[in-house]
Amino acid sequence: MPNAKMFPFEEIVVTYKGGVKITLAGEELAWSLQYGPSQGYRPLLEKMRQFQEYWHKPVQNHWDILVTSGSMEACSMVLEMVIDIGDPIMVQVPTYEGILNALAPLIPEFIDIAQDQDGIIPENIMKVCEKRIRSGKPMPKLLYVNPTGANPTGTVLTESRRRRIYELAEMYNFLILEDDPYCFLHFVDSKPTTFLELDSSGRVIRLDSFSKVLSAGLRLGVVTANKEIIGKLIKHMTTTSMHASSLSQMLLLKFLDTWGLEGKQQHFNDVQNFYRERRDIMLSIIEKHLTGLAEWNVPKAGMFFWIRIKKMKDVMELASKKCTSQKIFLIPGHAFNYDRSKPDAHLRLCYSYATPEEIDKALSTLAKLIREEIKNED
Ligand SMILES: Cc1ncc(COP(=O)(O)O)c(C=O)c1O
User: Fold this and answer.
1) Which of 47, 181, 254, 261 to pair with 86, CA 20 to 30 A apart?
2) pTM over 0.70
3) Which residues have C-beta within 8 Å of that of residue 278, sequence separation ≥ 6?
4) How far apart, in Å, are the Cα atoms of 91 and each of 113, 117, 143?
5) What confidence tens digit (pLDDT) does each residue in 243-278 have?
6) What torsion do the CA atoms of 157, 161, 79, 105 make, to the nearest 10 degrees?
7) Sign of the alpha-carbon dihedral angle for 318, 322, 326, 332
């Protein structure tokens, strides 16, 4: 371990929104610049366990946490731990492209679980499992799901579906990988129940991310799962990135300490209000320009609209060439399918960043491009 006295920092001063200022010096500064335990900084682990108790109320006692460099790292570690070549796994489709990229080298057998406006459909899980039992095929090891604000569809699983899916996991004995980075970015009446809250038998691996509410660049996330799983993931962490950034962990701890419960609740409310407003703005612009050309569901959480262009079979050329050349950046549906060669008529539009004027201009141009494409196809 290097001697922190030789690191060229005197102090690090941070001012959080609202004016709260913290100064890292002495021991805290040395800790922030030093190697640390793979599981996470002990005071942060304590705080995060309280945080999880408060927000997700785990029902089983045998759980613990691991601090990671965001939920993507956590996903990769979990998938590498669980999956051998050819193992069947169930994924919500369409699927966040980062997960597809993490899964590709593991070569699993993908089992699609379709979504409607309320998220993945439990009956599909049941049908798949029953069919596999009948044909003697190996059962899926795991279900990958974004319960709140699925990327890219923006759906929120209903309470009854969450309960039903957990029952099915018990019945058919699969793990649930609950990747929930948009958990605090929902536009429904109250925070949805998480799978962790339903998990009486330790089969849920919950991934939280601080990327959408604190900072994406600090690279912080937390895995919450039963202690055996956490133990294995800690070993994985020890031999890969060793631990999440010490400085980031210290800043998270200070945020959790200094903002108090009300401050955090207020911050999460502010984040929700901000994105809800953005969603509403994009919705009205979509209605203005794309009515008749596309269909969509209104996202109930997250940052994305998932729209289907009605009279086109495939949007790859439109999205990747025509839109890009007009400086419109949107993602074609292909990116969310493990078979990227399949034709797809969906586009993912993001409302987190662009101004209303930029969105209006982009969607007006998109509508023009779609009309031209349809005319050419006719
Ligand atoms: C569904 C989903 N999982 C994981 C991630 C990655 O999150 P993190 O920044 O915590 O690694 C994202 C980022 O957009 C996401 O949408």
Assistant:
1) 181
2) yes
3) 303, 351, 352
4) 6, 17, 6
5) 999 999 999 999 999 888 888 899 999 999 999 999
6) -70
7) positive
